[in-house]
Design goal:
single chain; 411 residues; mainly alpha; 19 helices; 67% helix; 0% strand; transmembrane; cell membrane; glycosyltransferase activity; membrane; EC 2.4.-.-
Length: 411
């Protein structure tokens, strides 16, 4: 290369180019989602319900006295969650909401950082802005900020748990789960993972923190008994609005009960096989892949099987999506990413020209995305199991059989 070419065509490596492209775009996307869309708000307002409950708590007024027959967002947090949310009401409503949005953005950035480090990448690599860009591109993160709810903190609890449990810091890992359980029990199924490893210290803080906080909060809430009498029974009911679970979707579209039950059973059976295979073949040889994929299977199945599954819960599948960087990932195929588009896309499919079709797509993109993702995981692992069985039957004459089985469906 001549001296002139050296100055006219300076050499820049690809990772640096990616970082230069991604950082400004990502920063502006974060600004747009948080300062513009989130502050603007939406018809759906999760924050006001929580703020009013916190205000009632501080002023010794009933907290669990809502009318659950309406379709407005309801306050469903346990007494321990009320205790943790209480300090918000010290500020006026607008300042409290803006503060909560700002904290949620910080928490989301921290979650992305921990996820990048969990998978072995440096913060100054192109992967960090790429993960942040993906986060804020999704409907889950955007609507978590716009509706202003607690889900960003649940994501941090999940990623913190995965990071700490890999670092053998069990009490702190349990604390990450325990603090989220004190507000909402979404991450409870993830406790199956330390249970399978017989890591009992995790449960000391995971269960101890919400129990202690509930004991403290109970005498401070004037109608704490109403949480058990009114709120808990309501939580077990299936509502037919803003509900992407199998039962919620079936109720909305009038699907026969037997078909709803059959689908729920089918997804549970697929999850059982997937979890068994992941534990048997990856738990001891590739703990990161086992933890992140198994947590995705547990949570994705919960979203489908439970009484309430909301689209923005999909952000808890980020660790599963991130496994695409790992050799044995179940995400290295196009159907998996079609599923990711379905449950994480911010696209709206409402159509004026084809109204029924557009409404069907809009109401079903999340449950179809969750369903396809769980089916993909099951099928990839099933094919690997079948390959392993075939290799075992062929005997030692096929040295490459096991390697083929380990990568089947990954590419």
């Amino acid at each position: 290369m001549s001296v002139m070419d050296r100055y006219l065509y300076p050499r820049v490596d690809t990772p640096r180019i990616l970082s230069m492209v991604l950082w400004p775009v990502t920063v502006m996307m974060i600004f747009h989602r948080s300062v513009i869309l989130a502050v603007n708000g939406s018809r759906t307002d999760d924050f006001s319900t929580v703020y009013n409950a916190a205000l009632n708590f501080l002023n010794r007024r009933p907290v669990y006295a809502e009318n659950y027959t309406t379709v407005d967002p309801h306050y469903l947090y346990s007494p321990s969650g009320t205790l943790l949310m209480g300090p918000m009401a010290v500020l006026n409503p607008d300042h409290a909401r803006w503060t909560f949005i700002a904290l949620s953005v910080v928490v989301l950035v921290a979650s992305a950082y921990l996820l990048v480090r969990l998978f072995g990448y440096r913060a100054d690599s192109w992967v960090f802005p790429a993960v942040l860009f993906f986060f804020f591109l999704t409907e889950s993160v955007a609507n978590t900020l716009i509706f202003t709810n607690f889900n960003a903190f649940v994501l941090l609890g999940l990623v913190g748990f995965l990071t700490l449990i890999r670092g053998k810091r069990d009490l702190w890992a349990g604390a990450c789960i325990g603090l989220t359980l004190a507000v909402k029990p979404v991450l409870a199924p993830v406790l199956l993972l330390p249970l399978l490893q017989l890591r009992w210290k995790v449960f000391v803080t995971a269960l101890g923190i919400p129990v202690v906080l509930n004991v403290i909060a109970w005498p401070l809430i004037v109608d704490a008994r109403s949480y058990l009498d009114r709120t808990v029974p309501y939580l077990s009911e299936t509502r037919n609005y803003y509900n992407s679970s199998i039962t919620g979707n079936g109720l909305y579209f009038g699907v026969a009960d037997w078909l709803v039950i059959a689908m729920r059973v089918a997804f549970v059976l697929m999850a059982i096989f997937s979890l068994w295979f992941l534990y048997r073949y990856y738990a001891k040889t590739d703990e990161l892949l086992w933890l992140t994929t198994s947590s995705g299977v547990l949570l994705g199945t919960l979203f489908l099987f439970g009484s309430l599954g909301q689209g923005y819960y999909s952000m808890l599948l980020f660790p599963l999506v991130m496994t695409v960087f790992l050799p044995g990932s179940v995400m290295r195929n196009w159907p998996a990413w079609l599923a990711v588009y379905g449950c994480l896309s911010f696209d709206v499919f409402s159509s004026k020209q084809w109204e029924p079709f557009g409404r069907y797509l809009e109401y079903n993109k999340v449950p179809l995305g969750w369903s396809l993702l769980m089916i993909v995981v099951f099928c990839v692992l099933l094919f690997r199991w079948l390959d392993l069985r075939a290799a075992a039957q062929d005997g030692p004459d096929k040295p490459d059989a096991e390697v083929t089985a380990g990568t089947a469906g990954a590419a």
